[in-house]
Structure formats: C-alpha cells, structure tokens
C-alpha cells in the first residue's frame, strides 16, 4: 500500500494535480470621460480596445462597440477575462476614434491609453486613471474600469423588445428610438447592461433580439430592480429622453412561452405638468428565453459515463527498455513515466466508468 501511495503521489506531482492555479472569471466594464478628438469641431466616435501582454508583446483580446459622437461614452460591451491570483497580468486599454467610413485602426485616431494590472482592478473593484497620449502626456480625459466576479451562474437570457406609439421628438421626421437597460446595484448605483441598436424614423420600433448573461442582468437576483430608458437618438450625441420604466428579471420571465409583458413608458416631467398625461408609449417584451449552460458537474451528476481507453506507443525512439534512460524502463523501486500518467488519469476516470 505504501508503494502504491508513493506512485499516486509521484504521479500527482508529475502532472501538477496539487498545484492547480486559482482561476476566477472576471467581467470588466469600461467608461470614459472628457475624451476629445484632434478635430475640435466634431466629437469622436470612440472604441476601447483591450490588450494583454504576453512574453513582452501586446496582443488584442477584445474591443467594445463604437459609440458615435460621444465624449463621455459608457460601453455596454463587457470584457470577460481569466484572473490568476498568482500571476501578474498586464492590461492595456486603448481608446480610438473610429470614423463611420471604416472600422479599422490604421486610419483611426489614437485618443489615449491606460496600462495597469488585472490585480489592481480586481483589488480596487473600480479603477479610474488618466488616458495617456503619445509621449505619455496626460490630458483631461480619463477611463474607468469596473471589475465584477462571475458568480458561477453561466445561464443567459434572450430578450426581444419592441414599442408602440412612442413620443415624437423630431420636428421634420419621427423619433429614432433606442433602449437602454440598467441594473440597480445594492449601493443604488446603476450599471448599464445592454444598449439596443437605433431604429431610425419609427415610433413603433422592433429592436433586434439580444442575449445577456443572467449574472450581468441581475447578479443572479431575480427581484433586483432593472431601470429601462428609451431615448431618441440625435447625431450630435445629445439624445432626447422619451421615457422610462422599472422591472425585474422575475417580471420579464412572464414573457416566456409565447406571452408578452408590457410597460408604460413614463416621462416624469410630463406626468407632473400635464393633467391628461397617460404615457409616452408602450414598451413590449415579446420574448424571454432562458438558456441554461450546464457545467461539467451537471453532466457527471446526471449519469454521464466516461470510457477509459489506453494506447501505448512502443516506438523504437524510446530506446532499449533495459536502459534506465528509456521511458519503457521498469525500475524496481519507482514507476516510469507511462505508469505515472496511467495512474494519474485512470485514478480519476475510474469513478465515472
């Protein structure tokens, strides 16, 4: 028994079973303030690019959406990264002005960058720093990154919104509405969850179906308040407020199985001033689908069987098995590399076969 326990210990040490890293998935939300373009007569169309350093080189990991004509953008796109407590993970956030004529970076204006470690963001939860331009000169612009650990609930929800009879905010055409959904946190702060596309010249818009994780939407709390705002998009970035309403994920689940959920879109100023005011339109949730993301443990507990098959390559390149340098050499007191691997993997798999 003692000899076998030594085999298990040797196998575990060989494959690093007892040295597994502390891995956590983290969502990063990004917002900027006071960014300016080289052209003082126009506002930039910002996009944030996330890069990570590996072997001294910077590699692009992901990028946000482009927000048109905005100096204080709050991006709805989340960056999901793996956080290793025992590693120094260097990040670089670059803000670029992406013109409407192209989405590439070759001709885009660099508006500033910020470097930090993932550990700094995670430890502070909310990190704000100045954006540095070429030459590491700091201007008045800044970037804020908020970190949130994924709770382990990987389920996501598919939502499809539309509206009817929204207020008309334009003189020569109809409103160009879009919808924003905010999660209200425990400290009463609001976190942007999703921003729909703009439907041009339409008081009865039907926005595209979108997907969002349950963790991002409500932090796993179905009764958490969600604030929803409808805006009329303007090209100068000064969007007109149409109305708002509150809901919860629990209420939105009422739109499952072909049913609809409706809310009155309310403008508080109109409601206070106008006696006959009813609403500024109706927002409709046409579809709510929950997609459960099963973990590996779900499959195992559900009865999944693992078949264990072994193949050994007796290649001549391993050398004479009578030589102690050969991988096939059978030592009288300790296991060879093949036996170490077989024991390490087989010991795990045998419980599920």
Automatic annotation (TrEMBL):
Record's Gene Ontology CC terms?
A: plasma membrane
Provide the transmembrane region boundaries.
Answer: none
Q: Which GO terms describe its molecular function?
A: calcium-dependent phospholipid binding
One Pfam family hit: Copine
Which superkingdom?
Eukaryota
Q: Which GO terms describe its biological process?
A: cellular response to calcium ion
* InterPro entries assigned to the protein according to its UniProt record, in alphabetical order: C2_dom, C2_domain_sf, C2B_Copine, Copine, Copine_C
User: Domain named C2: which ranges?
Assistant: 3-131, 137-264
Q: Which PROSITE patterns match?
A: C2
Entry protein name: CPNE4 protein
Whose protein is this, by species?
A: Prunella himalayana
